[in-house]
Amino acid sequence: MQNSVTHAVLLFAVVGLAACQPAVPDSGSGVGFADYNNYERSRIDRDAALNRGGSTPPSGLGVPAGLGTTATVAPAASGQPVISGDELRSAGLPTGGNSAALPVTSPVSSAPLDATGSTTAPVPVGSGSTGISDEQDFGAVSGRESIESNAERIARQRAAYEVVQPTAVPTRPGSNGPNIVAFALSTTNAVGQKIYNRSGFNAESKFLRACASYPSSDRAQEDFLKNGGPQKDSKGVDPDGDGFACYWDPTPFRKVARN
Question: Does the CA dihedral 213-215-216-220 come out positive or negative?
């Protein structure tokens, strides 16, 4: 008996909770909050009204407050071109049942705005550029020069042209040593071509140690000639016997003399 009472109490509690549960919204609703079928019917009614040229809104669609059921188009401003409803229909465009003429608006200007808000004309790219020569532009040159003026300009340039004649190499002040330029021009053998006999004992280490004491190969060649070179090599700066000390090369001097 007690179990039956307990089951009855539980049953009434479940029923009471179910009654308090809110209704589940319809998941099959269509666009917006209305039923999709009602939305389709409203759309069909609206299209039919537009095709008939009527101004009555379809069912389910209201008219904004303060407006009547028919809408009028404001007349175009004086002197402004208009397009009539007949012209729209002849072009295959819908008129919405209103044959009133529509004003033609001018296109919006695409000119840029300056800091004051007024439009400014675009400046062509490259106009007023300076520092670029147009001597290769036939149109630009022919516009400012003639054959006679060009000939006069060439004559002036030739008259101002100065040819510098080569002169003798100046004597180095404070130096009474051998002239390596004169020595280079007096030789004809290539670098590394043996002309003089040299001792091969400890030649490489002696050569590296001696050449490291000179700031340049020119100074090494001067000292080499001053100490009896090229016939003698007391310091070991010319181990291959070509007459040129510490990688000194007479080729640049020979080329200058030939030119």
Answer: negative
Whether the pLDDT of residue 8 is over 60: the answer is yes
Q: Is residue 189 assigned to a domain? A: yes
The token duo for 4 is 């039956």
Per the domain annotation, does 195 fall within a domain? yes
- Domain range enclosing 41: 29-60
Per-residue pLDDT tens digits for 208-246: 999 999 999 999 999 999 999 899 998 999 999 999 999
d(C-alpha 230, C-alpha 139), whole Å:
66
Which long-range contacts link 227-232 to residues 24+ away (Cβ below 8 Å)? 230/195, 230/196, 231/196
Between the alpha carbon of residue 33 and those of residues 46, 64, 93, 143, 171, the distances in Å are 19, 20, 33, 77, 108
Q: What is the pLDDT of residue 36?
A: 74
Placement of tokens 């072009």 in the chain: 91
The per-residue pLDDT for 150 is 83
Tokens at 114, concatenated = 């300056």
153 vs 161: CA distance, rounded Å: 13
Q: Please list, in sequence order, all residues whose beta carbon lies within 8 angstroms of the beta carbon of residue 187, skipping any fewer than 6 positions away.
A: 243, 250
pTM: predicted TM-score of the whole model, two decimal places: 0.35
CB of 196 within 8 A of CB of 231?
yes
Looking at the 3D structure of the chain, how many domains does it have? 2
Q: Does residue 162 form part of some domain? A: no
**Is 225 part of any domain?**
yes
- Between residues 100 and 113, which one has the greater pLDDT? 113
